[in-house]
Structures are given as structure tokens and as C-alpha cells.
């Protein structure tokens, strides 16, 4: 398990887990609340019954339906305790409040307005008081720890290494849609052991680089070298002809593999493809392919993405950076399934001559003039790694006085890892681990490494150190940096925290803008969109190749780039949230133009520029976030679509409408995979049950509007293979009575409701950034965030800035 766990021993590990876990108790945990914190009025109140004004309203208007053995919606108000400290009771009364507030209940036609107002005001006040008291006592966020992505970035920043670490830790469980939410996080002995293993591996890499130096591998591979083995039986490499290496689309696995490239060490490599050009390109002037790494053999068939290749008629160099495992080779192949496949003929002795006829017969290919591979260290060079580990201490210093140097270095390292200054008491145990090893005649390096490993697995490193109430400046710096960079604070944030300036709203706002403009914000875009839009699930399904014959790896990777580029543009230019629903531009490349079949709808596109912003015609169907292929794919199952799945997604992630889980025992609606019966017809039977219809009135409309897109994001008018099934009916009526006959008219209904979308985004982002879902008493703060962004047309950047300067973010 590593040096640290051997030195700490099991009892110390148990204490570490207990300390972290104890922070995470939630509302209603045993002994979690303090009775002394309840005011005298509440202490005298009979918690078994609601106050008299509320009871009178319930008795006159609600108990007829919510009191018998089978109450409506499963809610019985008889005997429902009014102890709002209990989570279940609080949630039940919150639901009662919302149903009455929204006019869904009670159904009395003779209900007087003042009766409802008195009831709502009284219940709202008590719910607000109870929730606010609980937050004041224990905070709204329960002991959040770093996600595995945040931990990887933190270790990289602390040490300057670049090892992939996240896959060595268990996946984080998402709750309320986000892995950052504390209530869904676990910390067990097993997980701590994994952290120890990861810390030991990271430190081994850092100390090796500092003490032994970096590898400086460089490989320059000519076209002739890349085609070594041509003429051998079962050759699957590229053709070498006229100073070029040429890959063709062939119906065989591992075609395009280059045996002469075998990576000597695990590491990051910069790969340059020289003078890449397209042979017989498609109408758009481009041939698309994939560059991948792997063993390249049937015994180990997995290949790892390096990048997608966009070859144009004009030769140009293409550059990639990727982590490649020791012993892996590269494979370059045209990977556009719209291309005609060239004949294999891999065993012919005249392979090269035969392949020349591929070009003459119009087959498309990708040519280049060789590959340059360089070992790189993207996070830091050796000098910086050495500085991170040893500061200004030299070998003669630790040889002459190892105890003093070790104490000083551990204090320095712990302060960085804990993201705040440390006291001598806080750091003493970590120092002692190294001092004990020194006393046993272990080397200074081993002693220092053991102390550092303990620091990297400390609860002060793994968790957010926060106390109920307003956050101190260092806690604000940590929240801010992990929200916008998924990484630890930089020197600027730590300096401002030390000066006590981060609670100044203007300074905080300027730091938010600085961080959003920093290249590290790309890490935020990737992390946030992965969770908010479920992009991390894009590999969960494989589209049926019989129905979707042209969906390929290039299309899928382009879809991810499309959505992330679109969100980045919205933030960069502070564009309004209405763009989630519809927009007059899109971020596309040539492959997506053909996949979506919208080449005639766009303006401003040029070949060879990858994902680029293009203008859409007014009648285009590709406007907005919700019409993008990545969103449409993660809300489908690879074979069929469901208005329910897409409807829930749009309601919760885009419109901010919370959809309750289905009642127990209600079966799922399974679409007809043949397309003979429309999903709409099946849903009509399902909605005949009034208890189901109550929710489906809200869920289904956006799902119906998106039924015109198939599981891979292509427009359709009919279901089934080849569009031979039932006709798609994308019309419907929204919960508030708005009617639409298809996607475009549905979009117009919500483009004109930007405040609704802004509120939904603010709640989603605050949940991600704070590690806790929106609480009842947070709603006034969310109202202020939305109103403060109105002048910018509810710009995304303005909403983010307002959220990060709000009370829910600046308080535990």
C-alpha cells in the first residue's frame, strides 16, 4: 500500500478516514443537530402538529384528498409531523408549499386569495427559518472532498509531474447531476489506500525526475521507415511512394499501423505529421482520419485516441500531444465511414503498385511526409520539479543538517497542499514521519518522500477546510480555483487571500474574469460540461451500425468539440442563456456539416480549420445547445430515442425544472425498435393514468420537439431503418398551455423566457461550484443572481460572476 501506510499504521489511517467522514454528516443525521440552537418559540412549539393557521387551511381544503388509507399522490397530511428539522418532514412540507404556490393544489374553485396568501406566507416563513438555522449551525455543504480529477490536477500542480492519475482512483458518484456534491461522496479505507498508492507513484516520478533527469527521446520517421515490412504477408501499414506515406480506408483492423514506431517509455509525446494532404477528398475538400496508439494486435485490440486528422488538398503540418504507453505504436487511418473502402489485397507482392491504382480509381486517402515524435513534459521541466520538492535546499544542506531541512521543507509543502498557512502543531505529525525514518538511518530522500506522501493523503489536502458561516479568504480561494480551474489556487489567489482581499466584491469579480480568461479554464469547461450535460457518458452506448452506417469516431469526437467550443464561446463573449435553446450560429467542422446534412444552411465555413463558428440561416434546425449531436446522443440509447429521457434532460439541465422520480411500480415505456409504432402512441397509453400524466405534462413536450433527431443527431421525418417506419410527430403543448408544431416553434416559446433558463443555469452552476444542491433558503439568493444578470441579457459570464460572488458560494 505504500511507505506511508506502513509508517502510519492502521489506527492512524482509521483516524484519518473518521475525521473526513465525520465532516459529511447531513441534515437529520444522528446527533447532527443542536437543540440548543432552536429559539425559545420553536422549543415550546408542538412539533407534532402544524401551527393553527396552517392547520385550518389544510382542514378546509386538503384533508379530503390527503387523509385516507390511499391518499392522493401518496401524501397523507394526517399525522405528518411538523418537525422541520427532520429531512423527510421538511421535504413533505416544502412539496405542499410548492404545489399550493404553483396553483396545482388545492382544486377548490371558491378558494379566496387571502386564504392562500396567508397559508403560503406562514409556511414559507417557517420553512425558511428552519433551513436557514440548519445552514447557520452546520453549513449547507457537508465536508466535500476533491474529485479524482481535482486531485490529479492538484498533485500535478504541487509536484510539476504529468502522470495520468485519475484512472487509478475509483469513479466519483454523481448526485444531483454532479460528482462535486458532498452528499454523494464516500471515503473508505479502500479509497484512502488508493490515494496512498497514487501519492507514492506520483512522488516516485517527481523524485526520479529531480534526481536523475528527464528522458529526451526524439524519433524522426521517414515515409520509407514507416512502411517497413511492405511485401510481407498480412502487411497492414501505410504505402510508401514518391516520398510520402499514404494510408487508405481498408476493411481490416489495425490498417495504417506503423510497426517502426515503438514508444520506449510511458510519457507525453508531441507528434508532428509533416505535410499532411488529402488524396481524392470529398466535396468539402477534406479527408478525415484518426491517429491512435496501441499495441496494434488482436491479442490487445484496444487503441487510444491521439487526435483526429483533417487532411486538406493543401499540405500542412499537424501537431498533437498525447500520453502514450511504453511499447505502443501509432496507427493512422482514414476513418470517415462515408468514404468508399479500398480493396484490401494485403498479401499481394505488388501491394505498392496495386495501391497506386487506389488513387487512380478515386479512393480517398491521407498522405504525409513523415512523423516527428518528441518526449515532452507539459506541466513543468526538471528545474521546476526540483524547486517544487526541495525549494532552495541543496544536497549539502540536508547532508549537514537533515532534521532542520526536513522540517522546513515539510512545512513549506504542507502549506501549499493544504492551501493555507500551517501552524507548527498542524504539521508536526507529518514531520515526525520523516524524522522517525531519519532516526532509523533511512536516507533523507526516503524520509522526505514519506512525509510528503502523508501530506498528499491528509484530510486537509483531500477535503475543503471550511467552517459554518462566511468563508475565510483561503477557503474562498480554494472554492474559486476548483470551480473555475478544477485545480488548486495559484500564487495570485494565495497572495490576495493572505492580504484578506478576496471578500472584496470588486477584487473577487476581477479574479473571476482573470481565471475565466486563463488557459486553465479549459479544464473547467471539460469538467463542467462532462457533468452538467452528461458528456462523460458519450461512450456509454454504441449506435447500431445497421441503422447509422456513417457514424464514426471522427463524428463522435467532433460532437464533443462542438459542444465544448460552443459553451466556451458563450462564456468568452458573455452571450445570453437563450442560446441554450436556439442561436444564429453553430460551432462545426466539415465532417459535422456532412453528418448533419446542413452544408447549405451555413455561412463562413472554410476547410482545414477544424471546429469553427459559422452563421446559420434563420430556418436552420441546428441552432442552440439542445440540437447538438453530443446532447442528442447521450439522451438516446444507440438504437432508439425516448421523449421521456430527452424531456427530463432538457427540463432539469436547461430549463431548471425539477422532475420527481416516477412512482414505484410504474414500468418504463420501451420504444418499438423497428419503428412500426411511434413512441408517442405508446406514451399516450402511459399518460392515460392521471398520476403519470401529472408529471408527463411537463416532461414530454421538449422530448416531443426533439423527436425529429435520431440517436446520432441527424434530422428525420420517420422512424425505423431508412425512414420506413411511423411518421415523427414533434408537436405538443407545454405545461403552461403553449402549443408548438415542431422544434422551431418550441424553441421560440423558450427563447422568450430567458429568465427561466437563467435561473436553471444558476442553480446548476452553484450546485457544481459549491458541492451542494440549492437549498430552500438559497432561493432568494438565486433570485438576486438572475436579476443582477438581466442587464446583460442573462449573459453566461455575468451569471457565473454573480453566482461566485453570492452568499451560497461565499458561505459554507
From TrEMBL:
Domain DUF1595: 407-466
Entries under Pfam families matching the protein: PSCyt1, PSCyt3, PSD2, PSD3, PSD4, PSD5
InterPro entries per the UniProt record, alphabetical: Cyt_c_Planctomycete-type (IPR011429), DUF1585 (IPR011478), DUF1587 (IPR013036), DUF1588 (IPR013039), DUF1592 (IPR013042), DUF1595 (IPR013043)
Segments forming domain Cytochrome C Planctomycete-type: 62-108
Highest taxon, organism lineage: Bacteria
Organism: Stieleria neptunia
Domain DUF1585: 736-809
Boundaries of every DUF1587 domain copy: 144-207
Record region (Disordered): 25-50
Ranges for domain DUF1592: 471-597
The protein's name: Planctomycete cytochrome C
Amino acid at each position: 500500500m505504500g511507505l506511508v501506510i506502513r509508517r502510519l499504521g492502521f489506527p492512524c489511517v482509521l483516524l484519518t478516514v473518521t475525521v473526513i467522514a465525520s465532516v459529511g454528516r447531513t441534515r437529520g443525521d444522528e446527533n447532527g443537530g443542536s437543540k440548543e440552537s432552536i429559539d425559545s418559540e420553536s422549543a415550546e412549539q408542538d412539533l407534532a402538529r402544524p401551527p393553527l393557521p396552517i392547520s385550518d387551511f389544510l382542514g378546509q381544503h386538503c384533508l379530503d384528498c390527503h387523509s385516507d388509507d390511499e391518499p392522493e399522490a401518496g401524501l397523507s397530511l394526517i399525522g405528518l409531523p411538523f418537525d422541520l428539522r427532520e429531512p423527510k418532514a421538511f421535504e413533505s412540507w416544502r412539496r405542499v408549499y410548492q404545489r399550493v404556490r404553483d396553483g396545482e393544489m388545492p382544486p377548490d374553485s371558491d378558494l379566496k386569495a387571502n386564504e392562500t396568501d396567508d397559508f403560503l406566507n406562514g409556511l414559507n416563513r417557517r420553512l425558511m427559518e428552519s433551513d436557514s438555522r440548519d445552514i447557520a449551525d452546520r453549513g449547507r455543504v457537508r465536508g466535500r472532498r476533491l474529485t479524482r480529477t481535482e486531485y490529479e490536477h492538484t498533485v500535478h500542480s504541487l509536484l510539476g509531474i504529468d502522470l495520468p492519475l485519475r484512472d487509478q482512483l475509483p469513479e466519483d458518484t454523481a448526485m444531483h447531476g454532479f460528482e462535486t456534491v458532498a452528499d454523494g461522496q464516500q471515503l473508505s479505507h479502500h479509497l484512502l489506500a488508493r490515494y496512498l498508492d497514487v501519492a507514492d507513484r506520483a512522488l516516485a516520478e517527481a523524485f526520479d525526475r529531480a534526481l536523475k533527469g528527464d528522458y529526451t527521446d526524439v524519433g524522426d520517421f521517414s515515409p520509407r521507415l514507416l512502411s517497413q515490412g511492405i511485401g510481407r504477408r498480412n502487411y497492414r501499414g501505410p504505402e510508401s511512394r514518391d516520398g510520402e506515406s499514404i494510408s487508405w480506408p481498408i476493411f481490416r483492423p489495425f490498417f495504417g499501423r506503423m510497426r517502426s514506431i515503438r514508444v520506449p517509455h510511458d510519457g507525453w509525446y508531441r507528434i508532428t505529421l509533416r505535410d499532411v494532404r488529402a488524396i481524392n477528398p470529398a466535396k468539402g475538400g477534406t479527408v478525415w482520419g484518426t491517429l491512435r496508439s496501441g499495441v496494434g494486435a488482436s491479442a490487445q485490440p484496444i487503441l487510444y485516441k491521439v487526435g483526429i486528422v483533417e487532411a486538406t488538398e493543401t499540405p500542412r503540418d499537424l501537431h498533437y500531444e498525447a500520453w502514450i504507453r511504453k511499447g505502443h505504436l501509432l496507427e493512422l487511418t482514414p476513418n470517415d465511414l462515408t468514404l468508399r473502402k479500398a480493396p484490401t489485397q494485403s498479401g499481394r507482392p505488388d501491394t505498392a503498385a496495386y495501391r497506386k491504382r487506389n488513387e487512380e480509381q478515386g479512393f480517398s486517402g491521407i498522405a504525409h511526409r513523415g512523423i516527428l515524435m518528441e518526449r515532452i513534459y507539459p506541466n513543468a521541466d526538471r528545474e521546476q520539479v526540483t524547486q517544487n520538492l526541495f525549494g532552495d535546499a541543496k544536497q549539502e544542506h540536508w547532508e549537514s543538517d537533515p532534521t532542520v531541512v526536513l522540517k522546513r521543507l515539510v512545512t513549506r509543502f504542507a502549506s501549499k497542499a493544504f492551501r493555507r498557512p500551517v501552524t507548527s502543531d498542524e504539521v508536526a505529525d507529518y514531520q515526525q514521519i520523516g524524522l522517525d525514518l531519519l532516526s532509523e538511518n533511512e536516507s533523507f530522500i526516503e524520509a522526505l518522500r514519506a512525509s510528503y506522501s502523508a501530506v498528499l493523503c491528509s484530510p486537509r489536502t483531500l477535503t475543503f477546510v471550511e467552517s459554518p458561516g462566511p468563508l475565510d479568504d483561503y477557503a474562498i480561494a480554494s472554492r474559486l480555483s476548483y470551480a473555475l480551474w478544477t485545480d488548486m489556487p495559484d500564487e495570485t489567489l494565495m497572495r490576495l487571500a493572505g492580504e484578506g482581499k478576496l471578500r472584496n466584491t470588486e477584487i473577487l469579480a476581477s479574479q473571476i474574469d482573470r481565471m475565466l480568461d486563463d488557459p486553465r479554464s479549459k479544464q473547467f469547461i471539460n469538467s463542467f460540461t462532462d457533468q452538467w450535460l452528461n458528456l462523460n457518458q458519450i461512450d456509454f452506448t454504441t449506435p447500431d451500425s445497421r441503422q447509422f452506417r456513417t457514424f464514426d469516431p471522427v463524428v463522435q469526437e467532433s460532437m464533443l468539440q462542438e459542444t465544448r467550443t460552443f459553451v466556451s464561446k458563450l462564456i468568452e463573449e458573455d452571450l445570453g442563456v437563450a442560446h441554450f435553446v436556439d442561436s444564429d450560429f453553430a460551432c462545426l467542422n466539415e465532417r459535422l456539416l456532412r453528418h448533419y446534412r446542413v452544408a447549405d444552411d451555413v455561412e463562413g465555413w472554410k476547410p482545414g480549420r477544424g471546429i469553427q463558428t459559422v452563421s446559420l440561416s434563420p430556418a436552420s434546425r441546428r441552432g442552440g445547445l439542445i440540437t447538438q449531436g453530443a446532447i442528442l446522443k447521450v439522451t438516446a440509447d444507440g438504437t432508439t430515442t425516448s421523449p421521456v429521457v430527452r424531456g427530463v434532460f432538457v427540463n432539469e439541465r436547461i430549463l431548471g425544472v425539477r422532475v420527481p422520480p416516477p412512482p414505484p411500480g410504474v414500468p418504463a415505456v420501451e420504444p418499438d425498435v423497428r419503428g412500426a409504432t411511434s413512441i408517442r402512441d405508446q406514451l399516450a397509453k402511459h399518460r392515460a393514468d392521471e398520476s403519470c400524466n401529472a408529471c408527463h405534462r411537463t416532461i414530454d413536450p421538449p422530448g416531443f420537439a426533439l423527436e425529429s433527431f435520431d440517436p446520432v443527431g441527424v434530422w428525420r421525418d420517420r422512424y425505423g431503418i431508412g425512414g420506413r417506419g411511423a411518421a415523427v410527430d414533434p408537436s405538443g403543448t407545454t405545461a403552461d398551455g403553449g402549443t408548438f408544431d415542431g422544434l422551431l416553434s418550441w424553441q421560440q416559446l423558450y427563447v422568450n423566457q430567458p429568465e427561466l433558463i437563467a435561473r436553471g443555469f444558476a442553480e446548476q452552476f452553484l450546485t457544481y461550484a459549491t458541492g451542494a444542491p440549492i437549498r430552500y433558503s438559497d432561493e432568494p439568493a438565486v433570485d438576486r443572481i438572475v436579476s443582477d444578470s438581466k442587464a446583460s441579457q442573462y449573459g453566461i459570464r455575468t451569471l457565473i460572476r454573480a453566482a461566485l460572488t453570492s452568499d451560497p458560494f461565499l458561505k459554507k
